[in-house]
Amino acid sequence: MEPRRNLVARPPASSVLERFRTTPEEPELRASARAMHRARASSISTLLFGPSGSVVLAVSISFLVLSGLACRSAAPVSIRAGSIASFSGVHAPGAPSLVEEGERTRVSLRAMINEVVSFRFELTPKSTPLRNASLHVRPFRMTGRRNDLGTSAAARVHEALSEPSVFPVTVYRMHRVHVRHLPGWMIRFVDPADRDTEPEDVLVPVSAPRGGLAETLEPGRSYPFWVDLFVPKGTEAGVYDGGLEVRGGGSPPLVVDITLEVVPVVLPDEADVQVLAPLDHEQLFRHHIPTLSGAGSALAVDDWRGHPEGKRMHALLRATLRELHRHRLTPVLPDLTPKITTRPGGELSVDWTAYDAVVGPLLDGRAFSDRLPLRRWPVPLSELLASYERPPTGQRDAEFSRRYRSMLIRYLAACADHFRETGWLAGSYVFLDVSPCPAGSTAEPSSGRAASADGSAALASCFERLADAADAVRRADPDLRVAAAVWPQSMEPYGWFGYPESSSCPDVDIWAPPAQFFDPTAMTR
Asked: 94's torsion region: left (phi>0), alpha (psi -120 to 50) or beta?
C-alpha cells in the first residue's frame, strides 16, 4: 500500500490573478486576471496530482468550455484592418507585437515545440454586411532559422523554403453565457463595475453547423474568435510566417499575418501536474442531442450501446474527452457508474461491461491520438453515497443506514478488486462530496456571526457522516484513497464560527476545499 500523503495546495489561478488586477507594477498579471475573469466558466472542484502520483493540489479551477484556456493573455489592443471591417480586442500569449501595416494586421507569437499557443480577435463589419463569410488559414513557411550559438536573438539566417510547415490551426467562434449567481472569488476580488455577468464562455469550431461562422456577418456587430495553433514534435526551431484570411462579399480579404517563433524546447507529452476536469456526461447528452432533452429521457443505467442515439452519444462523449485531453486536462466522468444489482439477502453484483467499454480506452490510451492514458480516475459511487447526504431521523432510517453502510463497503471492495485487476487502482481516488453546509444550516461564512446551535449541530453531523463514509472506504480496501470537499482549517477568520476541526476527519487523504476560503498556510501543514 502506498503511504498516505498530505496535500500541498495553492489558491485558484483566477483568485490569485484578480488580486493583481489593479497593481500597476504587474501589467502581465493584470492582463491575465482580465483574461481569466472574462473566460471563466463554471467552477469545478479539482484534484491535481504530481508526477510521482502524490496529490499536490486540490482547488477549484475554471476553464473555458471545450478549449481549456491555459495560456497567459496580453492586454487588449485595438487595431484596424481594411476598409470593410475592423479587428479589435486581440489577446495573445506573453506580450505579442501587434503591428498595423496598411491593409494587414500582424500578431507575433512564441511557442515551444509540442505546445499550443492561442490568441483572440474580434471582427466587426462596418457599414455593409459581410456575406458568404469564410475563414482560411495561410500555410506557414520558415523565414529564419534560429542561431542558438550567436550572442543575439537577432542573429538569424533568413531563407525561403519551398515546402510549407504544417501547424494545425483550430479557429473557434466565442459565445457569451448569462451568469445569474456570481462566484465568491469575483465578489471578493473584482470591483462591481468590472464584473462581467455575460462572459465569453463557450467556444464552437467555426466549421460547426450550429454556432459556428455565420454566412453573413452583420454590420456594427462584433464577432469574437479564438485561435489555437499547435507546434507538433519534429518542428525545427526558427521563425515562421503564416496567417488567417477572412473572405466575403467579393471584397479583398481581411488578413491577420502571424509570425511564430519556435524556440528549441520540447514540452513533454504529459504535464507534471495533472488537472482533473469533471464532466457531466448526461448533461452533455441533453444539451447536444434534442431527443434526450425532454422529461423522462434520462438513462436508467449508463449503458447506451443499444440506445437509438447510442452511436451519436458515443461520438459526442469521445470528442469532448479528446478535446479536454488535447488541452492537457485530465477529463473524468464522476457520475458514470456500472450496473449494480442487489438482492433482499444483501447480495450485491456489479456488471462492469458497459462501464469498461467507456473507461477502458481512456485509461489505456486507445481513446486519444497520442495514445497517452489518463493517469487518474474516480471510483464510481456518486449515487451510492446519497444516504450520507442527510443524517438518520429515526430508528427505521438508522437501521437502513447500517445496512446501507454494509452494502457500500461490499460495493467499494468490488470496485477495488476490479480496479486492481485492470491496473487502475494506483491512480484512483474515492471522492466524498459530503457538504459541510447542509440545507437549513445557519453556519455560513458570509454572516460574520456565530452559528446557531442548530447550525453547529448540523455541521457536526456532516463531519460525522464524512468520517463514517471515510471509515467505510478504509474497511472496504486500505489501498483506496479518500478525497473530501471540506476545509481542514479553522473558519473563524472568515466569520464561520463553530466549524469542526480537521481532527474530526482523520481518514481523509486528499483535501479538496472550495477555493474562495482557501488558506495556503493551513493547507501546507
From this structure: left
